[in-house]
Amino acid sequence: MMKVILDVDTGTDDAIAIMLALLSPELDVIGICSVNGNRGIEFTTENTLRVVEYLGAAQVPVHRGCVLPMVSTLSPGRRINIPYTGPEDPEDNVHGDYVDLPPATIKPAPGNAVSWLIDTLMESEGDITLVPVGPLTNIAMALRAEPAIAEKIKQIVLMGGGCREANITPSAEFNFWIDPEAAKIVFGSGCDITVVPLDATHAAAISIEDAKELRRMGTKASVMTADIIEHRWNGYKNWQPMDDINTVPVHDALAVCAVLNPQVLSPVVPVHADIDIGGGASDGQSIFDLDRRIKRAVPNVKVALGADRALFSKMLKEILGGNGS
After folding, report:
1. How far is the C-alpha of 79 from the C-alpha of 36, rounded, in Å?
2. Domain Inosine/uridine-preferring nucleoside hydrolase spans what residues (predicted)?
């Protein structure tokens, strides 16, 4: 079994990612960290606890993480609506404050996620994969506090950024836009990093027919996933319709599937990547030097430019429908 730590800002697609990880027999989820992102930390932590309890996985600790980005809220006018409360038009909402599950009766683990990450990684044998699918605040803070953890991280498979796609500003993807300094720190860490950007998650968009099939499977996880996909589809129709109007991306779940089977991402190319932290119109934009314009720059990440939609759909159904009773 592969040891993994999830770092989430639960929301809807995070909820599916958590269920995939917890139900996959190949993964040993040793802990889940919450972070400010889709909503404030109180919501993302509660939502994470709800999903964990729903699947009867209360033995997996949930660690409450950073309340705000590292520095991006310190400059007046640079960041508004943080903690994020959703789009102005309710019809564009793909998350909501709470996932549609009963309130959690379990509690977060004592302490904070950053300290737990440092302690857990430093005590490890270098065999833990990090799967951050929200803003990278917790990971960057841990790297700043104890840089030696970089050598203890087996790999990082993260969801964030976009090569040719954006979703919160004309140039930036949401996770990196929330905390661009954190993303820049992680990209400069020297870790083995695979980036699952919007280009890949849009290529792997799940159809309404897939949702119907998941619902027919009748497991707790597959029915909840069908509910989430249909909810997200309604939001995306108004906010960011896909080329195929009957599909919707499930971003964070693709990162978990990429840990399980890297072939779900294709093509994947090594590139030099950076993040704009300048505070201007491109603030938070991920910059992937696909054409090697910076001749002396050394690749520091691998980025997925596409994904196998059929394989992703198959993995969702096999894991959530087969193991999600």
Report:
1. 14
2. 4-313
Q: Distance between terminal CA atoms of the chain?
A: 21
Which phi and psi angles does 202 have, rounded to 5°?
Answer: -70, -40
Q: Which CA distances in Å does 310 have to 21, 302, 304, 313, 320?
A: 19, 22, 16, 5, 15
Confidence (pLDDT) at 324: 58
In angstroms, the Cα distances linking 201 to 94, 146, 321 are 15, 32, 21
Over residues 97-147, the pLDDT tens digits come to 999 999 999 999 999 999 999 999 999 999 999 999 999 999 999 999 999
Residue of 7, 9, 199, 252 with catalytic role: 9
Instruction: Quote the CA–CA distance of 321 and 325 in Å, as a whole number.
Output: 7
**Cut 0.85: pTM above it:** yes
Q: Are 276 and 283 in contact (CB under 8 A)?
A: yes
The residue ranges of every structural domain in the chain are 2-321
Letter string b/e over residues 171-197, b meaning 16 or more CB atoms within 10 A of that residue's CB: bbbbbbbbbbbbbbbbbebebebbbbb
How far apart (Å, rounded) are the C-alpha atoms in residues 244 and 43?
Answer: 31
> What does the pLDDT read at residue 94?
86
> Which top CATH class is 2-321?
alpha beta
| 9 given a catalytic annotation | yes
Residues forming a β-bridge with 265: 307
